[in-house]
Design goal:
Elements: H1 2-25, E1 27-31, E2 34-37, H2 38-51, H3 62-88, H4 95-108, H5 113-122, H6 126-148, H7 156-165, E3 177-182, H8 189-198, H9 203-210, E4 223-226, H10 234-241, E5 252-254, E6 257-264, H11 277-307, E7 310-312
Antiparallel strand pairs: 1-2, 1-7, 3-4, 3-6, 5-6
Helix pairs in contact: 2-3, 3-6, 4-6, 7-11
Length: 314
């Protein structure tokens, strides 16, 4: 009898393992013949699930889980389409290209290689996932340059009109840094923000005490390094372009957390010199080009999807 029970238990355990393996090997989608398994999807969605504090095993969070999985799957489909498009266009990203981008990021965050390696060791997926993500980003950038950016036109009159409407925002931004506070859960962000505004607490002190920004930025009062104005996404570009040196934002939402940003000159000199139209032209061109490029990019990705054979199975 005992042996029979042990055999039944072993069978049930094996059946459970087989069922779990089958679920992970299940195909979530096929993109032009290339499969995305549930294992791949769940792995890619892990950071977003952790950020949103979603427990995949909690039935009450099923709707939230499905939403994150759908968004992640959509991004994975786009990544595959771009990788396939890169082959068609004979676009290649070499390991040296990725190394160069990593070196630029280390420099932008004022980190040493040792600090970067230590951070990677603490990060799920580590350097391998980072290199894969950088490769995807560089592929998109190159395709943008080949298929999108050259179709975007900004006229001199558009630049002049923007300059006249935004003169007060046109100043020399060379050397400006961005400091960031991402408030810990349970902290009254608005109370701390009011203390910063009144001068009762410095931004750097608030960052060191209440922020979850990783080291070494936290020890530097939230300093994320010099602002790379040419590589800001539209959200950050709009936020920082509306600020002047010395400004601190109100509390805003950042990936589910409360945050604040300070724009400043680390030398302590927060005076600024207005730019002439000629000096401001490259910056305005970039500002006006961004939404146009985004529109062309969305048209391009829509065309890629419409021309692809995509079979979503979840």
């Amino acid at each position: 009898m005992r042996n029979t029970l042990l055999l039944i238990a072993a069978f049930l355990l094996l059946a459970g393992s087989v069922a779990q393996a089958a679920q992970l090997n299940k195909v979530a989608a096929v993109v032009n013949g290339q499969a995305i398994t549930m294992f791949d999807l769940q792995k890619a969605a892990t950071p977003a699930l952790a950020q949103a504090r979603i427990n995949p095993d909690d039935p009450a969070q099923k709707a939230a889980l499905d939403s994150v999985l759908r968004r992640t799957l959509d991004m994975m489909i786009i990544d595959i389409l771009f990788a396939q498009e890169a082959k068609r266009l004979k676009i290649e990203i070499s390991p040296a290209d990725v190394d160069k981008e990593i070196a630029a990021r280390i420099k932008a965050h004022n980190m040493t290689r040792e600090q970067f390696d230590a951070q990677m060791a603490r990060t799920r997926g580590g350097l391998t996932d980072l290199r894969n993500n950088i490769t995807k980003d560089l592929i998109r950038q190159k395709i943008m340059g080949v298929e999108v950016a050259r179709r975007v036109v900004v006229t001199p009159q558009e630049i002049k009109n923007y300059y006249e409407a935004h003169k007060d925002q046109m100043y020399n931004k060379q050397g400006l840094h961005m400091a960031l506070i991402v408030y810990r859960p349970g902290v009254n962000a608005w109370d701390i923000a009011n203390r910063i505004k009144s001068g009762a607490m410095s931004f750097a002190e608030a960052s060191q005490k209440y922020s979850i920004v990783p080291s070494p930025a936290k020890e530097r009062g939230g300093d994320m390094g010099p602002v790379n104005w040419e590589q800001l996404n539209p959200e950050w570009e709009a936020r920082l372009n509306s600020m002047k040196p010395g400004d601190v934002t109100e509390v805003f939402d950042l990936q589910g957390r409360k945050a604040q940003v300070r724009l400043y000159n680390p030398t302590g000199d927060n005076e600024y010199r207005p730019l002439t139209l000629e000096e401001a032209t490259p910056r305005i061109d970039a500002i006006l080009r961004q939404p146009k490029a985004k529109e062309r990019f969305e048209e391009y990705t829509t065309r890629l999807r419409n021309n692809a054979v995509i079979d979503v199975r979840i």
